[in-house]
Amino acid sequence: MKRFPRVLFVSNPWIHLCVLWLSLILGLVVVNTIHTKEFTVHSQEAGNYEKDRVWSVFESRLEIYRENLTDLRNNLFIQLLLIAASIALIASRSDTFEFSLISQHVPTRFVAYALPACLAYIWIRFGYLLNEIIKQRMDLWTLAGSMEGSLIRPLLSDGGIIDGWFLVFRSAFIAPVVSGPLPIVRTFAVGFGMFLGLSNGCMLGMPLYCTRRFARTDTSRRTQVFLFYLWAILLSMTHYSFYCFGSHPNFVSLVAVVTSALVATVIANVKIRK
């Protein structure tokens, strides 16, 4: 019995993975070389309000910004849980998967099919949150400039991922009090990209893993490979949209793409435990 089904014109999954990800990596590299337009905040609102009204607007937006920061942290925590669940499922030989928090046993096959969909939803939510937080912080920075900027701008610091992002990619929009050694911050950005790549890799690798462990017919195998391509297209579109249309040039996306390709390849070829 073959380890992988024949799909389209090629039966070797390594070729599918290599062609898909080499194309995406090449596209990101090309975009990186031609992307020269700098993002500029077009905000005239500060001039339309008295100082007290400007402060009121700033406070209300700051509250929304902090709520989004909380949602972003929760999102990353959920991604971490889903990654752990994916690893536990691959390492498990049981036909049921136990959820300790709710004391329920769920068929392993169902969990394996559901995990990529959950990761896809969380990933889309993550992209919207990160894009919105970056834009909100830049707008708040500009708005604070019409007041006591040196005293107010440190309120935007989150002491974590967003500070690191701005230190590396938007250094003109971060207070000096939260600055740090750039090599260390860049290392943190690479680690962040690898974490996202691990999440993306689990999303991509699980359908190919399911073709070997759970799929019993050619139809079910083809369905799983179709899902692999569906998630791959989704990831390609979201990375490209964030990088280009969101005007967020960065190397985190490239690190995430490379890491996800490696992780998906490992998951697709991991030995099935009997």
Oligomeric composition of the shown chains: single chain
Give me the Rg, rounded.
22 Å
Count of the domains:
1
Low-confidence blocks of residues = 1-11, 30-49
Number of strands: 2
Helix content: 55-70%
Distance between the termini: 16 Å
Summed up:
The chain has 274 residues and is mostly helical.
Description:
This protein has one domain. Helices cover 70% and strands 3% of the residues. The protein is built from eight helices and two strands. It has a two-stranded antiparallel ribbon with strand order 1-2. Helix 3 packs antiparallel against helix 6. It starts with 12 loop residues before the first helix and ends in a 5-residue tail after the last helix.
Labels describing this entry:
single chain; 274 residues; mainly alpha; two-stranded antiparallel ribbon; elongated
